[in-house]
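Here is a tokenized protein:
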Amino acid sequence: MTVARTEPTYRNPVLNADWSDPDVIRVGDDFYLTASSFGRAPGLPLLHSRDLVNWTLVGHALQRLEPEAEFAVPRHDCGVWAPSLRHHDDRFWIFWGDPDQGIFQVNAPEIRGPWTRPLLVKAGKGLIDPCPLWDDETGEAYLVHAWAKSRSGVKNRLTGHRMHPHGTELLDEGEVIVDGDRLPGWFTLEGPKLYRHDGWFWILAPAGGVETGWQGAFRSRGFFGPYEEKVVLEQKDTDVNGPHQGGWVRTPSGEDWFLHFQQRGAYGRVVHLQPMRWGADGWPVLGDDGAPVAVHRRPDLPPQPPAAPATDDDFPGGRHGRQWTWTANPKEGWTTQHSADGLRLTCVRSAGAHDLRTLPHVLTQRLPGTPCTVEVELRLDSEEPGARAGLAVLGDACRWIGLQRGADGAVHLVHRFTEASAEEERDADHARPAPGGRARLRVDIGAGARCRFSYDTGDGFRPSGQVFAATPWRWVGALLGLVAVAPTGQGHAGAATFTRFRIGPPAHG
């Protein structure tokens, strides 16, 4: 029996992995959170909590990215940026910006779906970070969004629109309602979340960049402004750099809380929970008088059992858990279902077999934000010369360890890496025999996401290669990956079977 926690405090981060650009809502006694998923599929992760501290992953709102053809190959930093999650008219709604296409929307009667196909609400380059608001007082609906300079040539401003109450279209061309260039010291204003409170329109929006920025609050009596501004959360003398971009939520007892991210290099954007209150001047006060808290009293909510998004997987029946996502839209035949445990990954023939970063059929999950040991067992079932499979740490630079079938028919343990600026992989250590085509693979991930690879081909774990410092992509944290691949050619190239994937405490000895 799982026992509910009784500790009076919690410690940040509450989600210690790359749950980028979080947004949160409450429906009854349940809290729900979504986050950016960029070019991975499925996208739009859906997390659930009863206490704002313990979270589980319950599904995804977006099964495939559109247009399908554009996401048939990895586009690691594109796709789903900064979604907003809302509950209105007995439906869940998610709006997000694709910087290359425009503002999309999906909705569903229940958090687990079924979710609608993506609807393009507004087409355009550089339209990002949209957030809707249905004003219960007037029946009007609005939407605010930011701009990506890389696509539009414009940034540091928020544009507001009237929106059809059905959430299907915008009713005007929009106008700039907050211009960060007119605010001394403000830059890279983005990520707006729109609310009504105490007779005001509120926009909670970050500025200053993901590494070093702050959280701003803006208020106006009318949606189109003018808005007053105030910085409500910043690093101050803490070690939480750039604390910003998230959502406000109120508990049934009336407590206010704010969830936001902190950029942590290869670990991506981890999620913190800040207390929030409304000051005597009517402005929100976040954290400890505007500074992030490391430890704080837990929210006034019923105690819950310890929980976190799943990581381990036995792959029952050949199916992978919902914590896994592909690096592009998946194709039928990449996995094979069967009656036992274990993930059978097809050795997909690919011209890009020499660079895992370019492959769409890499199955990934987030790199944990604390030191840990990652292990998986692998059997290479392919007889194809050059077929290979393994465990990878993927980012702007990549390293993997696994098995490869040689031209002589033997299977070898191989360990390879690709530098950030390189397109071809190199050996990280000498190849070794792998009797029976089997191996246990391990990555010990220490402080600073420094990774030590090792293997066991039957006589205990042995270290392999030099320490590898994991790296993020531009907006995405490093990823753990399972992959099977074969050189180009004709016919089926066989498969690889992964079993007992585990992420545990750091190994010693």
